[in-house]
Specification:
This protein has 385 residues and is of the alpha+beta class. The protein has a single domain, classed as PPM-type phosphatase domain (Phosphatase 2c, domain 1, 4-Layer Sandwich). The strands form five sheets. The chain has a seven-stranded antiparallel β-sheet.
Length: 385
Amino acid sequence: MFAVPSFGSTVGSEGRVRPGVSAVPNRSAYSDHGRAATVPTEVSVSIVSAPWRRCTGAARWNGRVAHTTTGAAGAGEHHLPVLEAALLSLRGPAPPATTVNPQPKGPDVHQPPERPTAAEPGGGTRAAARIQAATEAGGAAPNEDLLLASNSWAVVLDGVTRYPDDGCVHDVPWYVATLGASLAAALAAGRTPRESLARGIEAVADAHRDTCELDNPVSPAATVAVARLAEDRLEWLVLGDCAVAWRAKGRAPEVRSDDRLARLPDPPQAVTVGRLRRYPVDYIARVRNRPGGFWVASTDPGAAERALTGAEPAAGVEAVALLTDGLTRLVERYGRTWSELLDLGLSQGVPSLISAVRAAEEADPRFGERSKRHDDATAVLLRPR
């Protein structure tokens, strides 16, 4: 699943070599994409009332189709049937919905209108947040990242670039869409992030158990980041190489990510798999979602128990960012600090983060024949009211 890095290189969650100076070696995913678009897709989020069947459809955007939505409906129309089917298989109170408005050109940051604090199922309250989000595919291939957001929580998913012969009739965007819909429904019903992820993985497995080989070691998978503002705390979860970062006023940022892939002992030499240099499938079968290995969301709900989770005091938190590894490379490869990353997103809008990473990638002379300059890049920025 991942390739052996040369000196000064690191590896990403798909197991491909990424060139560059030594850094925290737990991110970056080069998929077999063409040149990336020059302008990121911005997603502006507003809180609206919406019927249950539209809630996650309206919240979701993965950059597949340029469109603007208003009211209760909205999402890439390629995947609305997938999302709605997943939601209809679940029960629970209707979550607050969002409308996402991707803008194909330039920044157009929209601040949602003020809304009352939402009631938490079973009692308590959820703190409302202003939300900005942006996503961009790494090239001409479909965006395998996905983001979802409500007035108190957000999710980003980064689909693992597909292996040949993965035993599944579905593609990676189907996997992340189905997982995202089910995970979001559980979060909105008041489940913890860990419980929500387990339920999401189980729902996806049930959705293709009869058509696909769920015991295949490279079955479709994704890395995950979740953040939720609940009463006086910030809850977070990471599984794989997505990241959650937050900053309280007057303090340095706190960052949580999962580097177990980078710490695998004695990995083998890479082989060419699907035109990319990656670790062989038999090695992945021994280390993916296995004790002592690394963990991603795939077919086993038990992977959620291996996610890194925590709860922090929410008092004074000015911003919470969720990012896929296509954006964390601004810090890990290109020398930005986490404070600089948050400052840029807060001052110039989330699309500026994607513009910054694309500019750095274009100027980087260290890319080899088996790697691509651009990865799918996604960020969500929550600002507590």
